[in-house]
Predict the 3D structure of the following.
Amino acid sequence: MKKFALSLISIILTAAFFVTGYRYIFPSTRIMALEDIPQRLSELAESETDAQPATQELSTAGTTAVSAATATEAETEAQAESTTVAVPATVAETAAPSETQTEAETAVKTTTEKPTETETAKSSTTEAESSSTGLSFPSLDSIFDMSIPSVTPGIRTFRQAPDDYFEDALFIGDSRTEELMEYGNLPGATFFCKVGMSLYNMHKGTVKVNNGIGSVSFDSLINNHRFRKVYIMLGVNEIGYARQQTVNKYKALIDEIKAAQPNSVIFIEANIHLTAKESAKSSEINNKEIDDFNNKISQFADKKTVFYLDVNEIFDDDSGALRSECSGDGTHLKAKYTREWGEWLKTKAIL
Amino acid sequence: MVFSSFPFLIWFLPFFLAIYHTAPVKTHNFVLLLFSLVFYAYGCSEHPLYFLLLVCSVFLNWVLGLLISKSKVKKFWLLIGLILDFGFLFVFKYLDFAISGVNRISSFFASGSLNLYHLNLVLPIGISFFTFQIVSYLIDVYRGTVPVEKNIIDLGAYIIAFPQLIAGPIVKYGEIYTKLHDRFVNKEYIFRGIELFIFGLGFKVLLANRLAGLWTEVSKIGYSSLSVPMAWMGIFGYSLQLYFDFYGYSLMAIGLGKMLGFDIPENFRTPYVSLTMTEFWTRWHITLGSWFREYVYIPLGGNRKGNARTFLNLFTVWMLTAIWHGAGVNFLLWGLFLALIIIAEKAVYGKFLERHSVFGHIYMIILIPVSWLLFALDSMGDIKDYLCRLVGAGGEYVFAEDWLKNGKLYLPFLVIGVILATPVGKKIYERIKSKPVIIPVLIAITAGTFYCLYKGLNDPFMYFRF
């Protein structure tokens, strides 16, 4: 008995030694090589272009003037979409030009401040731009001057995220988002997530948030911190509850975020599918129900300040279920695929 | 029906005990048989054919038993019995694996693969266990070591008895036939039975089911993305989970048997303090090892025919033991691994380990969890990934703090598990068992169990693949 205890203690001490020092002894844990990322992204972008043909072409070329360009684009956009939920620039331009000018200018400044990144990103992802908004830009270099913003309030297309993009991003979600926090490689992002989180319990109690924020309630988090992008992936834990009630709660959440973070962009993330095997096990929690819920919440996207992202497009098999190699338990993504999710999100930035 | 579930604990068991103990002693076996049939039917309600299979199997074996004892061609009937019983086991458990093997091997030949269809049969629960019990009966009758069972009800009660039908200790007919026909219970028996049952329940629900979350977490992350400490924590957790799961279930079976007056043999004797792999398998799943020793190893000659023959016998027994656990390439590999280790111990370093117990303990503490890897994972790729991560090689997308997060959640269970896996647990029990404090302890365990079951947390019984 004593000998057993002795050997156990020696093993524990050796283990403790290893645990504290292993990172120095085995530094070879490999992360995706930086060189591989552009190739992977162009692969993802290519599969996207096939799925979403361009529906519109921009006919007018911009001039060198900032405001003129914003006006032109805004007008075209207004014509094309004929929405009155306008483009602040168009409406305000007639009303209070100076105000909007400065607003547009600051918007322009922030986008032109990072010309090099967007430029390099554009060269590898020009195809990626003909995405959810349905607009297709011919080679931007020929049409737009670098000082002219390639995006205006009103027309927003997905871009490659610059390195610090996620520093003012908030991710809200359940266990899948928690995995994203650990394995997604989104530096600087804030995560409000917990295993089992749902629309029905997220406002109750506190959740431990990263980035030094500590245990806070949801209300206190969104009212005391500034986020320019908010990502939401919720729905699977409450999939068995009354559907319309859950959808209403989702809308209420979006409104709540808009009220607390007025200038932010909200990303509604479609809930990731289950594997076919896991989906077949339950009549309540299966891909059919998840798809129904995802469809309903996608209606809230207006492509201006609220966007809908569906990462299932990179993980699904032919039957619309999660590919079985992507998950160990049928419900959660393996670390490797969570990392792919993170990299995919980086191609879906709104600048 | 699972022992650690509300239908069993609240409905089946109290009702059964009430009827059993108020019925006349002569009908006890009949009551046991009846309730065991209900128990099995509940479990295979989706495959009613399997219930019929079990009943037919009992009937056929009863007939064969009589034939073996009375006929002049005993060997013939024994062979028929073995072919029938093992045949069922083979068809349900191993046929698809064999078909895959045939397909794969035939594809090496120029004429093209046979591409036989898989039957995709669902395994009848408990088939590995009751097949071995039936065969032990037939062989014992053939050898003449036991009188033949003329009463089909008694035989049925022995084969289908619900305490050990699904996953319980494999009870040889010779060990139980006296009690089968003549047993009694008194307060001591009942209390001891309840005690054992509650401890078993506690081990299973409060310890094994909680540790199961750790292994789920490990599979969720992906074996190639574990950090080194997490990989080790994973296999230690799995080893403890497997032990308490099976040990708990065996204790429950023994406790139930005691409540009925049976003395079911113990199945585990603190296996994790073993010094050699050979010793380990005399402490783990004792009844299986003893079955193989009595009906395979010793008939083959045991260790009495020289070294070479001993090694061959050991190899055979261990391959069969591994195959018993499951049909898959990883089980074959596991059997090979165990066989080689045990042969090496016998031939080379076993004595050394026994004499220098510190080395023995260290050797086993590392070897056992690693050997469970072959048992737990059925894909060669996964096994390779995991082994790499154990030594820090080949990781991708590792979250370096994963072991901290999981460690916080599971550390108490791991520590308690380690303590209870040593004789310390037994020593504590010996000290408190005759004192009044045992009652609140039992009540606390029961309350904790019910609470966990109520919360509806997941319950994988790993040996249920059998």
In short: Residues 187-221 of chain B form the longest helix (35 residues). Confidence is low (pLDDT under 50) at residues 457-466 of chain B.
